[in-house]
## 1
Amino acid sequence: MAGTVSSTKTPPWSLCTEPAVFHDKRTGRHLCRDHFISDVESRVAETIRGRRLIVPGDHVVIALSGGKDSTALLMILARLLPALEGVTLSAFTIDEGIHGYREDTIRSADELVKKYRLTHTMISFPDLFGGTLDVFLEGREPEACSICGILRRKALNVGAERAGATKLATGHNLDDEAQSVFMNVLRGDLPRLLRDSGSDSQGRFIPRIKPLMFISEKEIAVYLMLHGAWADLPECPYAVHALRGEVRRMLAVLESKHPGTMLHLMESRAQIEAHCDGSLVAEPMRHCAECGDPCSGEICQLCNLKKTL
Ligand code: SF4
Ligand code: ZN
């Protein structure tokens, strides 16, 4: 991890004399509560500004799972909102139907939107696909995340469209992004590696933005704790089957031993992107022969999957 919670009072790299709450191992800085919060928020603001993720007049809908990342995303965007000219914020939550997991996060999402007085809509797998993820995965647990990913992608697009949004914001953080870079390298999937660097819509869907892409999981946890918004929510029971889980553990060890590893993975992706001419990611725009959704083949992944559910 890039940083650790620290109780050191006046270490050499403190920005002030207030007690430090966070030690950033990568830069050596020790940050007090106020400096830590403003550092996180200003880095998110810089990501939004530098990458033009949000522009005046945008309606940004947050894909709010109620988990740590999307909760922090909502809190930070709500805080930055006055500086974002004419921008509207709303949220929607997807209920995949995962017993023993989603109930708590949905309750948490509901409390949050009430507190911030945001428009909030719910989308459920039974409504969209005629059944819960639990039912679809019976006997197919090892495929959980690929099946869920295809269904969630559709649900995200439907949620953003129903909200009338111009941007769809997700809570992907630095750890998620670094894991994705590593996983795509492990799979030998360079086009996917490049597509993941920003919006994967290629003009086909409502653009997705990841304002927390340079904020680590650890920083998000500390940010929530400092705001009294930390909740020990359950993990998705299917996560144990994912390659991501193994990559996550491996990168956490590497980051702890070699602070900056995750940022270096992001930099590698940026360098590859800078040296590619775009032909690797450009796919011909087609429409699914069955549902009409934009896709790259004859039949979209969702229609293919539906035949097997
Ligand atoms: Fe879906 Fe996998 Fe995430 Fe669970 S861990 S919500 S199955 S993508
Ligand atoms: Zn289709």
## 2
Amino acid sequence: MKQKDVSEHTFTLTNNDTGESWELPVIEGSVGPRVIDVRRLYADTGHFTYDPGYTSTGSCQSGITYIDGEQGILTYRGYPIEQLAQHSDYVEVCYLLIYGELPTQEQKAKFDHRITYHTMLHEQLHKFFQGFRRDSHPMAVMVGVVGALSAFYHDSLDIADPVHRFVASTRMIAKMPSIAANAYRYSLGMPFVYPRNDLNYSENFLYMMFSTPCEEYVVNPVLAHAMDRILILHADHEQNASTSTVRIAGSSGANPFACIAAGIACLWGPAHGGANEAVLGMLEQIGSKENIPEFIKRAKDKDDPFRLMGFGHRVYKNFDPRAKVMRQTAHEVLKDLGIKDDPLLDLAMELERIALEDEYFVSKKLYPNVDFYSGIIFRAMGIPTSMFTVLFAVARTVGWVAQWNEMVEDPSQKIGRPRQLYTGHPERDYIDIKKRG
Ligand code: SDX
């Protein structure tokens, strides 16, 4: 799907100081807001746009994921997330995000096989983990190990070669669960577990995380299904902070492993993918329903840095559709695990209820986002809090890879190099140290 010029809908820009005017072309996508093309703005007017945080800026054109924040809509290649979460599986969603269409049975079997047969890590890489302290945060390990992949896989670093990109993309998707499971097991002093080719992607991930060499480990199908659905929900999300990081790193021609490592680093932040870990910490800090009003009050207090983690979103000004599916999954997993009442889930539900009735949250359109419930599910699955963002990174790798490939293949793509509004000293002469006050 490519852009359509709708030049009859130009915007006129007038400099009221000089009376000069410029016609700015408008470009229309397939759905969603049109864009005003400002690529010539500086050349023609000598002015930059100013948009810290890029609240009103389109950085690229993309046909992968569409979000309507007002309606709470999210689609991958046009398919609603709710339908994919219900009917698809993560590897099929990986195919969809990368190739743009749902696979035929033959295409899916071939893609599944290729991913399965790339899940092992270079044996030397296992030694790489040994350099970390056992108590390292697993996200620190992920950044380091993924960044190091370019030291192991020299045969897929030429980003101009589509075959290299294809091999590197497959390796990234296939190996992230192995790296994540190793990071977890290394922190416990447990031996690494090799992947099994008879298990599907999510089953294999749980197997590598939780099995022990001492006895047979049977993957719980409920947990495997829940994991697969959670991976689908986190797979891609338009030009979020970590995806934009991957794109800008890739725009310099950096190799894909380095770009994905940059994305992992960005995702780690508590305002982004680190929020799922922060939500659990917040719920434990709140402790009981009686304390909710005090924390709601703190979240509204401009002088208090406390924010309600798992609430709010740059784009969604309605319910995050993923949060709805996540809430339903939380209930299913807890029920299937026989967990009658999980005090943290009860607390989260009550917090959501109170927040959504509060004028501050309603007026600022702050709704639960994808991170609000995910931690509760992961905790019920026996996954430690420090691994929550690692799971987000595993899921989002396909989104980063798909967006990176789209960027490399985009003929209009240039190196990302924003400008600034300079507010420092005008030019001044050097002063000898003996003459400084
Ligand atoms: C993800 O971009 C993506 O797509 C990300 C993501 C993905 O899939 O890639 O969806 C994943 O990162 C989800 C978000 C996870 N983060 C959190 O849950 C952390 C808590 N949320 C906030 O930090 C915040 O809502 C952000 C970072 C998510 C969005 O910040 P924005 O868009 O920059 O909004 P803002 O900070 O300007 O907030 C607007 C107003 C402010 O008040 P005013 O200055 O207008 O008076 O809302 C307030 C904020 O103070 N506000 C909150 C709040 N979030 C926003 N107040 C209390 N608690 C909150 N959580």
## 3
Amino acid sequence: MLNKNILIGVTGGIAAYKVVEVASRLKKLGANVRVMMTGSATEFVSPRTFQEITGNAVFVEMFGDAAHFHVAHVALADFADLVLIAPATANFLAKAAHGIADDLLTTTILASDKPLLIAPSMNTKMFLNPSTQENLRILKSRGVKILEPASGNLACGTVGKGRLPEPEEICAAVEKFFAPKILVGKKILVTAGGTIEAIDPVRYIGNRSSGRMGYEIAKSAANHGAEVVLISGKSELEPPDGLKFLKVESAVEMREKVLSEFDSVDAVIMSAAVADYRVKNISEQKIKKSAENLTLELVKNPDILRELGGLKKSQVLVGFAAETQNILDYANKKLVEKNLDFIVANDVTAEGAGFGVTTNIASIIWRGGKIETFPKMTKADLSEKIIERVADLLK
Ligand code: CTP
């Protein structure tokens, strides 16, 4: 971040106060930060606060008196390596999507050809309104990065999607933007989520995987410049932007999709929780309740990763071992049997690891027996570790 020029645009949302912390953190990381605000934003935070934090004059008025910054909107646009708009109101999104320039901030955006990162924040209904969604779609289609709002209690007293992500998350997104692009020219296949195996048209056998680990890995690979294919089983998460996303249900379907991509990729990271068995005879009709006991006959699913281990030419292969006991032994066995380059092992029963949480506690086991043990960290941070290692292997 050292000496990176970041232009922050603050629009009139209650979450503007959080952006003071964002500016402060970015400054501490060594960035040059300049702030421009809309008139409404100044109702929530004083420009003086940003001025003190950044050490730079804050720009609000189109025809203001910041004399040293000639033709402010052009100069600001030229200054930036990255423009961050936070919080971005629905009104701002509408203007940005349609090229409306009626104040300094929107005029600067129009005059800028610099990368744009937008963190929307608003009432849930405003966020979900088709107009706002359409505006977001337009902006995304132009390559603008949107930082999805979080869900939670909103200032208007409702609960839902629309909260500005926490300052550390916004800063992490900015840091990612400047992260060295260590995977440019590489194609990475990531699998995520749990497969589901049908019993009848209504029921299925599933597992507790949320998909979060794999989605973070896919995002991290894309942030580092890779072309990414994410093949996902069941997951409630939003598909990340900027990658090829394929949704599947069963292990057999996942195998088909993985095999169809395999020859063209440089690495595969199999973080999906693939069901080991499927129902032998899927009932065409809903199974009705009758006898006291019901027996389902299961047959083994293909082991996708083992198959890739057999087919592997130059590809890097990474597996996961979600265990509940003898973690390193079991993981090591999988590493060898599936012909992997390394395997990420974790105890899914440990607090702060496993299914449905945002953190993980993992070890990486390498061919030859080297083991790296990591402390508890976010799945996003663990993804970075994994991607850095994959990039090293692909060098
Ligand atoms: N895997 C796979 N196909 C399967 C099962 C697992 O590709 N049918 C992959 C997983 O995505 C993971 C690795 O193999 O990267 C290990 O998965 P895991 O479920 O931990 O191990 P299994 O080989 O299924 O063995 P077990 O369930 O007995 O622990």
